[in-house]
Amino acid sequence: MNQRYKIDRPDGILILVSILFVISSLVFSYFASVYATKRASNPVDDFFLNILPAVDVTLIFIYGFILFCVFILFLVIRNPRKLPFIFKSIALFVVIRSIFVMLTHTAPSPEVAVNYSSFDFILRRIVLSGDLFFSGHTGFPFLMALLYWNHRRLRVFFAATAVFFGFIVLLGHLHYSIDVFSAFFITYGIYRLSQKFFKKELALFKRE
Predict the structure, then answer these.
(1) Comparing 48-57, 85-94, 127-136, 150-159, which segment has the lowest mean pLDDT?
(2) Is residue 119's pLDDT more than 60?
(3) Domain count of the fold of the chain
(4) What is the rounded average pLDDT of the residues 166-172?
(5) CA distance 132 to 208
(6) Residue 98 belongs to some domain of the structure
(7) Residue 127 falls within a domain, yes or no?
(8) Residue 187: which region, alpha, beta or left (left: phi > 0; alpha: psi -120 to 50)?
(9) Does residue 128 register a pLDDT over 60?
(10) Inter-CA distances, 23 with 147, 170, 192, Å
(11) What is the pLDDT of residue 65?
């Protein structure tokens, strides 16, 4: 049996706890988004949104991001030892982003170019309009780039994906430019916190 798939009991517990962390963070994120959406105030002027035309980016924004998440799952399934650090880092990312979302009540641009009517029942309730700061579509791929920094191809792919999704959310007027550009800096801080808080998981992550 390939060593990367061999998981002992302590590692298995770490994996289970990490999965619970992610699930809990997503639940917290949902209610944070509901809170921010209900209390959204007014849209603001934005330099880049004034320049860029509003383009319908529904397919890429939703289903492109879902495919990206599936790819992440594929990576961790291939090497389960990396799962605890990746998942706990993601959970920390989601929690910190949720806190920022609750602190900022800016309404989205009036020219949001996503066709919500094309979503199914569940997606219409997950994708809310008040969770703007900061951009998860930009920050999440960049977090993966930091996690896989020593793997050149993955690093380049994830970094390019972060830039790509950053452009997509601006093109669709789904985020303000500050949401996108700040995501890189905040995400780097989250990555450093993950290294500090999850040392046991990081050690397991580095084992080949």
Answers:
(1) 127-136
(2) no
(3) 1
(4) 94
(5) 37
(6) yes
(7) yes
(8) alpha
(9) no
(10) 20, 28, 22
(11) 92
Residue 165 falls within a domain, yes or no? yes
Kindly state the tokens that stand for 55: 């383009």
Strands (E) across the chain are located at: none
Q: How many CB atoms lie within 10 A of CB 176?
A: 25
Residue range 160-182: mean pLDDT, rounded = 95
Do 173 and 112 meet the contact criterion of CB atoms below 8 Å apart?
yes
Per-residue pLDDT tens for 52-73?
A: 998 988 889 888 999 999 999 9
Q: Are 202 and 195 in contact (CB under 8 A)?
A: yes
* Residue whose C-alpha is closest to residue 62's, from 138, 137, 134: 137
Query: Domain containing 88: what range?
Result: 7-206
For residue 8, what pLDDT is reported?
67
Q: Is residue 1 part of a domain?
A: no
Give every CB contact of residue 110 below 8 A, 6+ residues apart in sequence: 43
Cβ contact 29:82 at 8 Å: no
Residue 75 neighbours by CB under 8 Å, 6+ apart: 82, 154
In this structure, how many other beta carbons lie within 10 angstroms of the beta carbon of residue 165? 27
